[in-house]
Design a protein that fits this description.
Helix content: 40-55%
Number of domains: 2
Bound molecules: phenylalanine
CATH topology of the largest domain: BirA Bifunctional Protein, domain 2
Order of helices and strands: HHHHHEEHEHEEHEEHEHEHHH
CATH architecture of the largest domain: 2-Layer Sandwich
Radius of gyration: 40 Å
Strand order of the largest sheet: 1-4-5-9-8-7-6
Structural class: alpha+beta
CATH superfamily of the largest domain: Bira Bifunctional Protein, Domain 2
Strand content: 15-25%
Number of helices: 13
Low-confidence stretches: none
Amino acid sequence: MIQQIEQYLEEVQNFNATDLKDVEAFRIKFLGKKGILNQLFSEFKNVPNNEKKLFGQKINQLKQTATEKVQSLKENLENSLEEQGSQLDLTRPGYPVEIGSRHPISIVKNQIIDIFKNIGFNVSEGPEIEDDWHNFTALNLPEYHPARDMQDTFFLQQNPDWLLRTHTSSVQTRYMEAHQPPIRTISPGRVYRNEDISARSHCIFHQVEGLYIDKGVSFADLKQTLLYFTKEMFGKSKIRLRPSYFPFTEPSAEVDIYWGLETETDKRITKGTGWLEIMGAGMVDPNVLKNMNIDPEEYTGFAFGMGIERIAMLLYQIPDIRMFYENDLRFLNQFKPII
Ligand code: PHE
């Protein structure tokens, strides 16, 4: 019996392995549940009393040696695997990381937001499905008012009081309902009009509208704000305001910037005049303030609204508005940031 254990001891001491799998097999053979050591332990009771002490010592020695062997072989093998790992070619270039791009509408929208944020405007948003009150009636466009035809509207069949908002002025009415002046807010968002789709117009597009209401706000403040905006956005410092009509502003104006006539494109987009219309604006009509429970004797304000697509088409020389919605990667990839 003792001899047998001595043999095992020798086997354990001489064991070597180059593979973790062999070490595991060795562990199971000696130290596993049905392994040699457990068998030896179970025979302990049959050993004559006078041999018990030596037998005990021997199997303990065998157990310890086997355990240490397994441990040291494992460590060695794992270390050498790590060393192999460090011999990888660390100078090999990595796989390229694909960087996405922002949509040009978002790029321009964010630029506009930043410019107005700098002079204290916050950003407000509202629902795209609107009711008649917020999109029309509250804005001094009562039912059957002919100016409703200025914006062809998509109505929801289920409920004719619901429609797809035709401008984000609807957000401004919601904002005025919820806040008393001073108000300084811009409302970016998607709008819908029942228009034929062509290179120049689409039934879905985006706007940013602005609203400023406080005591003593004048038309001069509007002009100065628009001038600041066109300088920041386009680097152009000549604007003109043409009299116009919107039901919710009085007086109203169409804002043109002097784009110049330097290139052929300038000539084409300004139709040879050098001037380019970029937005509508005006002083908030007292009727709108009244509808919103804001006292027009105490407060005045201005509002303006512009289409984002039109501005993006100008800045990036995009010839067809439909390109914004086609998600053609050849188009979108051109707006990847340069890094
Ligand atoms: N809401 C107008 C439109 O959609 C734009 C506008 C806003 C005009 C504010 C004047 C004042 O065309």
